[in-house]
Write a structure and sequence with these properties.
This protein is of the alpha+beta class and 546 residues long. It contains 21 helices and 15 strands.
Length: 546
């Protein structure tokens, strides 16, 4: 029975050591992450420890045991060192600096030197003997001075590693939190075994540390191979990933959702159940995103209506999207990254700037620039359809006297109220602007001269009917109107239509003001150069420039 137990323990340790050496070599070849070297060396040192302890258990004499213990103590001090490097690299997303790593390497280097020099006894073990109180002979010892130093170093290194991993498990993104906690919990096994050995709680004086180190080392390496432990998304990089204001969606090579940061989950209502599903299925209303991802790279913009995004109607959100291929170190594309930037505030600012650029600041109606943009397109449309277009130029009577008598604040109030009444009296299809000073202009699509005159008369009566009340007093307002209408041959003759309306306005002012005067030459707008014979030159309409 004793022989069977001894053989079983030794064989298990030798097999685990061989597997660990193989895994260490594999991980070392996959040097794509800051933790790969520390994992490989942790596996290698644990394997040497396990190999030596397996042969120690098979020894029957003190001399043979000490020979294998010297081999063990070449590797034992490095186990906590590489564990600390691994934990620091995993939590920080980058390897420990060269100077801190070199300083931390002094204790294990001294311990290995003592073992190679054959000074295990009496520096590590003050006394040594063979224990025969178990089913097979084991090594018995009394601690020496270096044993206590090595124990203190090991405990501090283990605590440091657990501190790093504890912080990583707290700060890790939801998708990696389980992985970080698995690493933290799994590492407890060799620590518990080491403490049990120090407290002499293990039967027969066995050291359980190598029995726990080797399986946990294998677990770390297998986890590394499965998801590139600490290389795909270290905790520190994940913290940045989660804290980004931009929404980030990561797709794998098949176009399935691999991960999404907090901004993306909040903005597009993504949860853990979305993982592993195609983007077109998760966000069917955003077919353009799936198309962009399939294209491989590019940019697009889209709008999310307020109701669609769970907000109020009109609270629209605007997004700018950039697609980037996720490329592995070998240059092979392994997925796709969509970076979605919320540009709502930018769009609102641009809309405000466009409004300011096209709106009269005092009255709130269109300015002359915006009026001409709309009028040119309307003139082009009228020229193609052969419909009449009417223009009205309006001038407030004796406005200078209002400023002189009541002050400029009262004059501004008169302009604002007059603009409001005139705009409300026009149709929704009409265009209206402040022409300049106390003048306003209106363009009436699909309107002949008689209809334009009738509308102008209603507007005139509206202004005259009710005075403007302001802080300086009550101001009576009247205005003069000039009207012209015709069928333009091209949008380029819009200025002639407005010029004829302006001439009619001048005659209204000459006739005593507060009246409507119409241009009497209703008909096609003649191009420049035609005489008074009334002949009309033919010309193809030309699309106006913006």
């Amino acid at each position: 029975m004793a022989t069977d137990t001894h053989l079983w323990l030794s064989t298990a340790l030798l097999a685990a050591s061989g597997i660990s050496i193989f895994l260490a070599g594999y991980v070392l070849l996959q040097r794509r992450a800051c933790c790969s070297a520390s994992i490989a060396l942790l596996l290698a040192s644990s394997a040497v420890f396990g190999f030596g302890y397996a042969l120690e258990l098979g020894s029957g004499t003190l001399e043979s045991m000490l020979r294998w213990i010297r081999l063990e103590f070449v590797a034992i001090p490095w186990v906590p060192y590489f564990w600390l490097l691994f934990a620091a690299g995993y939590a920080r997303g980058r390897a420990l600096g060269r100077l801190p790593a070199a300083l931390l390497a002094l204790p294990p280097a001294i311990g290995s030197a003592l073992a190679l020099a054959g000074r295990v006894v009496p520096l590590v073990f003050a006394k040594a003997w063979v224990r025969n109180d178990g089913p097979f002979p084991v090594f018995g010892f009394e601690p020496g001075p270096w044993f206590f130093i090595n124990t203190a170093w090991t405990v501090l290194a283990l605590l440091g590693g657990f501190t790093f991993l504890g912080v990583a498990s707290i700060k890790a993104a939801p998708g990696l939190r389980k992985q970080a906690r698995l690493v933290l919990v799994a590492a407890l096994a060799p620590v518990a075994g080491y403490l049990a050995m120090l407290a002499d709680l293990v039967p027969w004086g066995l050291d359980p540390t190598p029995f726990t180190l080797l399986p946990i080392g294998a677990l770390f390496s297998l986890e590394y191979m499965r998801i590139r432990l600490s290389g795909l998304a270290p905790a520190a990089r994940e913290a940045v990933f989660e804290a980004m204001d931009d929404a980030v969606i990561v797709l794998d090579g098949r176009g399935l959702l691999e991960s999404a940061n907090q901004a993306a989950r909040r903005a597009f209502f993504l949860d853990d159940g979305c993982a592993g599903r195609p983007l077109a299925e998760i966000m069917p209303e955003r077919a353009e995103l799936a198309a962009l991802a399939e294209a491989g790279q590019g940019r697009l913009s889209f709008r999310v209506a307020g109701r669609e995004g769970g907000g109020n109607e009109g609270d629209d959100a605007y997004w700018s999207v950039r697609a980037l291929p996720a490329v592995a170190s070998g240059g092979k594309a392994v997925g796709m990254v969509l970076v979605l930037s919320d540009v709502t505030e930018d769009e609102r600012l641009l809309a405000k700037l466009r409004e300011l650029a096209s709106t009269d600041e005092l009255t709130g109606v269109d300015n002359r620039r915006r009026f001409f943009e709309n009028a040119r397109h309307e003139a082009f449309r009228a020229s193609r359809k052969g419909t009449s277009l009417a223009a009205i130029i309006i001038d407030l009577d004796h406005f200078k006297a209002v400023n002189d008598r009541y002050g400029h604040a009262a004059g501004d109030a008169v302009l604002r109220e007059s603009a409001r009444r005139l705009a409300e009296g026009l149709r929704g299809s009409d265009f209206f602007c402040r022409w300049g000073g106390e003048e306003f202009a209106a363009l009436l699509p699909d309107t002949a001269l008689d209809g334009a005159v009738a509308l102008a008369e209603r507007l005139r009566a509206t202004l005259e009917l009710e005075p403007v009340h302001c802080l300086a007093g009550t101001v009576r307002v009247t205005a003069s109107f000039g009207v012209a209408a015709g069928v333009p041959l091209s949008s380029s003759w819009l200025d002639q239509l407005l010029g004829r309306a302006d001439e009619a306005l001048y005659r209204a002012k000459e006739a005593g003001r507060n009246r409507v005067v119409a241009d009497k030459l209703e008909g096609p707008i003649l191009p420049p150069g035609n005489g008074a014979s009334g002949s009309v030159a033919s010309s193809d309409p030309v699309e106006p420039s913006a």
